[in-house]
């Protein structure tokens, strides 16, 4: 996603001009644009004109139009976002108040104006416009003396670091080769630690000719323990060792084309969400006082800083009522401030559909809070909210009664 222009006031009102460059950007646009927003873009409209003699003629005119969005429809197969609403700005060919449908497509520039851009909106734009934040696969290709540390998105490979050193040949009675190799491994180790965000990256492909990758991985594991580098210690299972013909950047394509690697990378983007939802179901079974769903229960747990993992579907941020959207945005921001892991599920993924059956929001707690349910039974807090998505707020025995929900595999 390319940010063409941006103007926001202190109160969050303003516009952002965007251009969707990749197919995923259309999904981001669908989640950004809500009912009540103003969208301006180039469109084609059939204009009927009448001559002085009374005869009529029609022609298709390309013009810039601004509509107040009343309906959004996303065509995932055609990758088209359709927006319907009334024209809200004076135009030579379209009267104010006339209905029109805008079709947003790839490489089309459009401007979105909101009364308030909240943190979730801005975070989504940052993620979509920064390839480093949306890359969930990293690759390190190396040979003796040359290494590239890269991030791989769905459509590009970004080089984050290049390490090149002169490695002398092995000679009997000389330790120069071993010392140079160790210095080289140290530089690559530092690049991996500094340039790969393990909170985003799900898998690190480590490739080389021969046994260079094996030797470096052994060095990495040993040094991570010695230096107590938690990011590497906790994420060493994400490394996948595979063969590459060189340490040049083009070798990344070789890694990605290997069948074993493709199988490992299948659906990596949703891997963390799958694990989070599996963790919720497992906790619900093992210790139900640490697994809650529904806004009322989750908000109560978050207020007491008890939430360890917050699971929420992106559909909640597309609610028609501004107050409802702000309510969930505030809950997410509060959870992040209190150190919770936050997972935003796509409503078009199977995990998002499953979470949607639980009201679209759930949480795994750091410690048991049985008093939340006891308060509901005692009448202190309503077990049902205003209804709609995210309104359900029940747990334990009544939670899954009559529903068929399978834990994600």
What does this structure look like?
Residues 372-388 have a biased composition (Acidic residues). With 409 residues, the chain is an alpha+beta fold. The protein has three domains: 2-129, SH3 type barrels, CATH 2.30.30.870; 137-167 and 177-267, Nucleotidyltransferase, domain 5 (2-Layer Sandwich); 270-365, 60s Ribosomal Protein L30, Chain: A (2-Layer Sandwich), CATH 3.30.1330. Helices cover 33% and strands 29% of the residues. The protein has 13 helices and 16 strands. A seven-stranded antiparallel beta sheet has the order 1-2-7-3-4-5-6, sandwiched between helices. A five-stranded mixed beta sheet has the order 10-9-8-11-12, sandwiched between helices. A hairpin with a 5-residue loop joins strand 1 and strand 2 (14-19). The longest helix is centred in the middle third of the chain and has 20 residues, at 176-195. The protein is flat, with a radius of gyration of 26 Å.
